[in-house]
Amino acid sequence: MGAPVLLASEVSKRFGPVKALDKVEFHLDPGEVHALLGINGAGKSTFIKILSGIVQKDSGTITVAGQEVHFRAPEDAIRAGIATVQQHPELVPDMTGYENIFLGRETHGRGMLGRVDQRGLIARAAALLQRFAVPIDLSRTVAQMSAVEREAVAILQALAADDIRVLILDEPTSTLTDVERDDLFRLMNILRDQGISMIYITHQLEEVFEIADSFSVFRGGRCVARMSIDDARAQGVSLATMMLGEAMGEVFPPKAAPGTAGEVILSVRGLSSGLDFADVQFDVRQGEILGVFGLVGSGCDELAKAIFGAQPAERGQILVNGEEVMPGSPRDALAAGIFLVPGDRRTEGLALTRTALFNIPLANLGRASGKGWVLRRRRIREDAQRMTAQVALHPPSLTIPASGYSGGNQQKIVLAKGLYAEADVYIFVEPTVGVDIGARAKIYALIRELAQSAAVIVMSSDCDEVHGIADRTLALHKGRQVEPAMGTFSRDQLLMGGIMGGAHP
Amino acid sequence: MSMSLSGPAQPAPQRKRSFARIITNLWLLAALVAMTLAISQQRPQLLDPGNIATVLRSFSIMVIMVLGLTWVIASGKIDVSFMQVAALANMTCAALLQQGWGWGAAIAAAIALGLVVGLVNGGLVARMKLPPLIVTIATAGMCASAAAALGKGTVIRIADPGPLRGLLETTLFGAVPVIVLPVLGLCLLAWYAQERLAMGRYIYAMAQNEAAVVAVGVPVGRIVVLLFALSGASAALAGVLLAANLSSGQPTIGGAYLINGLTVVLLGGMMVHVGKPNILGSVTATLFLGVLFSGAALLGLPDYQRQIIQGALLLTGLAVATGAARMHAHRRKGN
Amino acid sequence: MSGRFILSRGAGRVVAFAAMVLALGAAFTLAEPRFLSNANLAGIARHMAANGLAALGLTFVVIVRRFDLSLAGVAAFTAMTMGAVIAAGLPLWVAVLVGLAVGVGLGLVSGLAISRFGMPDIVTTIGVGSICAGLAFLYTGGRSIFQNFFQSGITDLNDARLLGLGVSLWFLLGIYGLAWFVMHRTRTGAAFYATGENPVAAYYSGIPTRRYVTLAFVACAVCTVLAVLLILAESGNAETNKGANLMMPAYAGVFLGAAIMGGTSVLASFAGILLITMLLDGFALMGVPYYYSDGVVSLILLGGVVLFSDAARGWLAGLLVLLPAKAPATQGEKRG
């Protein structure tokens, strides 16, 4: 394998009283895909920021190909051959793929008053594609591209700088479908063949065995383990246990005992909406969790929004407690007792600049004002305190803005908001996206707790999640419902149903 | 096992698209010609050489006024101080001439002042991350105040007509003031910068996704400062031209230009690159507005009715642009 | 920041505001003893009433994260409208109702264009304002309207006193009190703020956000009409340039107040407009020419937003680091 391309030794970083990194030891070999694992707060994102020049280390040494480096700005890192693709790469929608790739480098260093050589850009893009044989049409605008194509554009943009040796990919699969993820992995293999080393961050542990050659685990600001995948396979180690530092209990809470489900609360009858989904039909009872598995683009998100009135359906019926309600807006849906925990909690779920106290009562201002007009401020505070305790918000403060919390804790605030809304039906869309493995079990337990008194639907593109949490499951494939033939799906049947559209391969 | 990064190829209806493009590119020009013909049917005086010269004269000044503004708005920011910068430059020029300065020095000082105001605007927006509207409202107020203070609240007369007067008054073929030539030259230069230089590309990219432009290391802050500085300088140049044109410094001259300038830039943003303010669009829209106003005056409409027409024009244009953008977004989502 | 010497952030801001009022009052009194005279204080109260109402209207719009630049145009048109109604010999209350109705209508036009049709706020309101400024000439072609003003009793709004204070001040306090109650103690206020903070999340919480954006523009126009009413009462005639001087103080008041108090709110706007009005009146008393006033207000506005901006706070924090040998806590670290 030769000398490591990147070597970090005794790297430490402190934010005020918080020790984010404590003498981290790390190395990366040439041409390997190396997974970086750890729960939120373990220090892996700080470490990545140091490697990409966004944050400066307090002490320790970093060498690239044997040369010690000091990064004061992102440009320094790129010059040393380390490029980073952010979790949500920023691209200009109306520009073509190659215009985005060479954005800021159009003029060969002659600055912004240099002339743009459009033909030269196309030639450079062709040369790049020749080196990394990515099958992509770069003459289309980014707005016309799929999520994985955008990721490819972002990766090519990172590689367009000279002599990039190390590529850091920050959770690149979080917005991709399974099929697109496989495309991305093929792309990563192409890069590996070209001798590019990759540091790959993910929360999806099964991906590690699929794509990585080796991995490191961060915990409490230290790099606690480094292993090759072959060794890990041979020893049968549990990645989750290594990340948490203790054996992880069962992630999913026990399912409801058969026959304990109560009355039907929500009935969906022949619900259709344009090209998004058609003839969806199901019941959910009090006390049970219905799981809906669907890939991105399957219509899951649109179905959830249709039941919640945010994107009204065209045909069909929605009944709550036997009464027909066809919500034309979230307001109608909430009045009918339906609450949505949206997949994109940062834009759809929370006022990020405001506290939990502000966010929690928002979906039920009627309760907050005791059915009147004037807010009952003491009651709101007491309720909010109780609910943040119930969802185990950490830190359990009512004065920190929501933006100051981790993904898992932001989701807990949305859950507390749902509790306050006192709905009969709770719909969760991608409930654990961006939530680390430590907080996941708590979220699942809370979902199960909600199902005691309400009907719950969990929609997700994570098949194991749907299968693990739900009492009954169905799959959505290209807007069509795939029902189990024998009453319930096995995990593999569910997966096939969602990917292929049929329960039987 | 083939990779399927690219989606299914979309055979674009090329011919139809290019025809549609010509329509969107040039409809304002067609509207300008149609309006000119319609008004000249009623009032042939519209096409008198003297009237054409008057229209082109104010056209030249107005184009200079909105040259920098066009890019500021194209980059997704706003500058509402340009007309007061023009007023300040106008008064500064007149006051310095009154003090016995020469025209050259007075012009230089006035433009330098506009540049400084632009730099302050740009600096506060780019470095302090303040909202551009608030910053430019405040600097506009200060400029207006300073402009009035220079003349103690009244007009300053200019005795010496100066060299610019010649550019404004001398006409080619009796209908085209000489000033039009350098102004159009400047526009061509700006058009070249906008279409061919990296800077032009960054301006439009910033409006769409500033973070993406920052992420690739483009000095976005410096561009913002530059755009506001250009806006200040070009408005100041317009103010100087106004001083020459009116032979006086008028402290309240700015008021009328705010709405004119914004109308021109936004109306112009609906041609050539739809939804994106651009130099060619601004030039065409300025001429359009100039002919419209001249025609309205010939038809005997009072000032306030022109103001109402203009406001309605601005709102209509805005509504059309917003509607088009919405349809565009809708179609895109349908894909 | 470790706040050992600071009581709390909110209290610190109130103290800072009080200090500014006292310093300003003291400075003006030193320069011109008449500043504390009854006549001048009454004048401040009167001017503050009109400015304060305009600022309050703007506050609603700024809370839903929009701007309204039609203030001056709306003021001009409604001033002439109310003047025309009064001149026609109709009772004052009819004039006020007509004015309010016109205001509601104009607010609806801007509000619906912006919230329903997604038109950009700044340019839309500039357009509406321009049309209004033109429409103000409809009645008389631009001549002043003064007929029947005295008989209609409108001037009483300016002259009458209650418990030793001018009626207009009571009017202002009453409306601010009402606005404070609605915005900070009722579900309507919570919905307004939620709409401004994150409209999508608010919509998903069942709040009809478009309605609140529209409502903000309507409230702004209505407050402008009320401000205009006080101006008509003070001057005893209606002119097309009435209200031209409302916009700058309103913007300065709202943003200066928000800067001092750490966020846009009814009380912040009140604080801001108090400072602005003291300044304007103080300068007028000292005989500073009228054309300086806009400049001074602008300077204060800019100074306020610069001093209290995040960037400035960052620099100040940077300076503080140099003094004690204690590292500041880094903001923005993820918790949990």
TrEMBL record, chain A:
Transmembrane segments: none annotated. Residues 6-245, 260-503 form the ABC transporter domain. InterPro entries: AAA+_ATPase (IPR003593), ABC_carbohydrate_import_ATPase (IPR050107), ABC_transporter-like_ATP-bd (IPR003439), ABC_transporter-like_CS (IPR017871), P-loop_NTPase (IPR027417). It comes from the Bacteria. Keywords: ATP-binding, Nucleotide-binding, Repeat, Sugar transport, Transport. One of its GO terms (molecular function) is ATP hydrolysis activity. Pfam families: ABC_tran. This is Ribose transport system ATP-binding protein.
Automatic annotation (TrEMBL), chain B:
One of its GO terms (cellular component) is plasma membrane. Its main location: membrane. One of its GO terms (molecular function) is transmembrane transporter activity. InterPro entries: ABC_transp_permease (IPR001851). It comes from the Bacteria. The chain crosses the membrane at residues 20-40, 52-73, 103-126, 133-151, 171-192, 213-242, 254-272, 279-301, 307-325. Keywords: Cell inner membrane, Cell membrane, Membrane, Transmembrane, Transmembrane helix, Transport. It is a multi-pass membrane protein. CDD domains: TM_PBP1_transp_AraH_like (cd06579). It is found in: Cell membrane. This is Ribose transport system permease protein. It comes from Gemmobacter aquatilis.
Automatic annotation (TrEMBL), chain C:
InterPro entries: ABC_transp_permease (IPR001851). It is a multi-pass membrane protein. It is found in: Cell membrane. GO terms for cellular component: plasma membrane. Keywords: Cell membrane, Membrane, Transmembrane, Transmembrane helix. Its main location: membrane. One of its GO terms (molecular function) is transmembrane transporter activity. The chain crosses the membrane at residues 47-64, 96-115, 122-142, 162-183, 212-232. It holds the Pfam family BPD_transp_2. PANTHER family: ABC TRANSPORTER PERMEASE PROTEIN YPHD-RELATED-RELATED, RIBOSE IMPORT PERMEASE PROTEIN RBSC. This is Ribose transport system permease protein. It comes from Gemmobacter aquatilis. The lineage of its organism: Bacteria, Pseudomonadati, Pseudomonadota, Alphaproteobacteria, Rhodobacterales.
